[in-house]
From TrEMBL:
Residues annotated as transmembrane: 21-41
CDD domains: ASKHA_NBD_FtsA
Localization per record: Cell membrane
Pfam families: FtsA (PF14450), SHS2_FTSA (PF02491)
Organism from which the protein derives: Meinhardsimonia xiamenensis
Protein name, per record: Cell division protein FtsA
Topology in the lipid bilayer: Peripheral membrane protein
InterPro entries reported in the protein's UniProt record: ATPase_NBD, Cell_div_FtsA, FtsA/MreB, SHS2_FtsA
Assembly with partners or alone: Self-interacts. Interacts with FtsZ.
Gene: ftsA
Cellular component terms (Gene Ontology): cell division site; cytoplasmic side of plasma membrane
SHS2 domain ranges (all copies): 24-225
Length: 445
């Protein structure tokens, strides 16, 4: 068991110290925008240890006291590409959020959308010498999970049990105190490119901030947009960002798969810029104000003026394009993104889940007509998801583009990765299990 919980445990003390002070910042570093939310945690409930498995929505012991967003710079495909530019964007958004909150922030919890996530399923089982599941038995069964060789240059970002089984009874969320002879566990582990994580940590430290936690944007976006029934029965969250489209699949309130497609809203913008021969800034404005992916009979007569600067065009000349032409440029790229997503879902075995609900969120999900186009490719059960409301969140920050930031607030309140973290009483274990457990402790504690 090498590196399984190393990152989460290394940052846990900093996260708890930040919560003791009562204030922590949330930082969503995206390709098109950087968002910062300042949270205030009130009361001792923010620091209490969870005694069971409960939905994160039940742990909203915080309120948003500051919020800011700015155009992202130096980030491509959800990863930092130019350190100085990214640092400038992060400094700008954190200072604006601090000014609104009226407090200084020293610790941030961040999420990122890129870094090439890969999912692994782990399994382990142990005997129960006392005929009942104790906390030490859970530690032993976690230690018994064999971690695959995920290759050099990769880092474990999330690792958590998603299912327990006692003898022939499966689907247990919390087996503690239950009788049986053999305990089995299924785990989900998510690895990412270590360089992307290191660059983000270095950039945040250059901004005179300490990183107190890190999460996958696809993971936290799912928590903020999937309702409890969807998380329980099985659903996929598709976070359509600027440079990447994140994919996460949930069942029994746990993420069991995550991936990303290196295509997003910025690729649609570039297609418009190339197709209409306009700057990217103009293409983004046209996409926002007039874009769509489903053509109607009126679109041939709906004309869009391309040159908004009258000084930049010859006298008497107007460049216009019909909305039908604009849709003809946007639709193929959006279809390509959805088809890539469909391939990843098929590869993950999504069709075997009890429910095939798909929730589209992120800034790219706001393209008009997407709710009609997506069911043709992804399946009939598709909806556009907005993040859950949290106390103090401004109305301007409650749209789909802020799904990852709001989900990261819930992650800050109660990270799932810390729910199953127990000491192993060595004198009570059989020799073979003891060797495995001690190696796990030595490597990770």
């Amino acid at each position: 068991m090498t590196d399984l919980y190393r990152n989460q445990r290394a940052m846990r003390n900093m996260r708890r110290a930040a919560l003791q002070r009562g204030v922590v910042a949330i930082l969503d570093v995206g390709t098109s925008a950087v968002t910062c939310l300042v949270l205030r945690f009130d009361g001792p409930g923010a620091l209490s240890r969870d005694d069971g498995v409960r939905p994160l929505a039940g742990h909203s012991t915080f309120r948003v006291i500051g919020a800011a967003t700015t155009r992202s710079r130096g980030v491509a495909f959800g990863e930092i590409e130019a350190m100085a530019e990214a640092e400038r964007a992060i400094r700008t958004v954190v200072q604006a959020a601090q000014k609104m909150a009226g407090v200084r922030v020293d610790h941030v919890i961040a999420c990122l959308a890129g870094a090439g996530p890969r999912s692994y399923g782990l399994a382990g089982e142990v005997d129960l010498p006392e005929g009942m599941v104790r906390e030490a038995d859970i530690a032993r069964v976690l230690a018994a999970c064999e971690v695959p060789d995920y290759g050099p240059g990769r880092e474990v970002l999330h690792a958590q049990p998603v299912n327990f089984a006692i003898d022939h009874r499966s689907g247990l969320l919390d087996p503690r105190g239950q009788a049986g002879n053999r305990l089995a566990c299924d785990m989900h582990m998510l690895t990412v490119d270590a360089r992307a994580i290191e660059n983000l940590i270095h950039c945040i430290r250059r901004c005179d901030l300490e990183l107190a936690g890190i999460a996958s944007a696809a993971y936290v976006a799912g928590f903020s947009t999937l309702v409890e029934d969807e998380q329980e029965l099985g659903a996929a969250c598709i976070d359509m960002g600027g440079g990447t489209t994140g994919i996460s699949i949930f069942i029994k309130k746990h993420m069991i798969y995550a991936d990303s497609v290196r295509l997003g809203g910025e690729h649609v913008t570039r297609d418009i810029a190339q197709g209409l021969q306009v700057p990217c800034a103009v293409a983004e404005r046209i996409k926002t104000l007039h874009g769509g992916v489903i053509a109607t009979g009126m679109d041939d007569r709906d004309m869009i003026e391309l040159d908004t600067d009258e000084n930049a065009r010859p006298v008497g000349e107007r460049r216009v394009v019909s909305r039908a032409e604009l849709i003809g440029i946007m639709q193929p790229r959006v279809e390509e993104i959805l088809e890539e997503v469909r391939e990843r879902l098929d590869a993950a075995g999504f069709e075997h889940l009890p429910s095939q609900q798909i929730v589209l969120t992120g800034g790219g999900s706001q393209i008009p007509g997407l709710e009609a186009l997506a069911p043709r490719i992804l399946g009939p059960q598709v909806r556009i998801g907005r993040p859950m409301r949290v106390q103090g969140l401004p109305q301007a920050a409650s749209g789909p583009a802020f799904a990852a930031a709001v989900g990261l607030c819930m992650f800050a309140a109660c990270p799932q990765d810390e729910w199953w973290d127990f000491e192993v009483p060595a004198e009570r274990l059989p020799a073979r299990s003891l060797r495995q457990a001690l190696k796990w402790l030595r490597d990770n504690w």
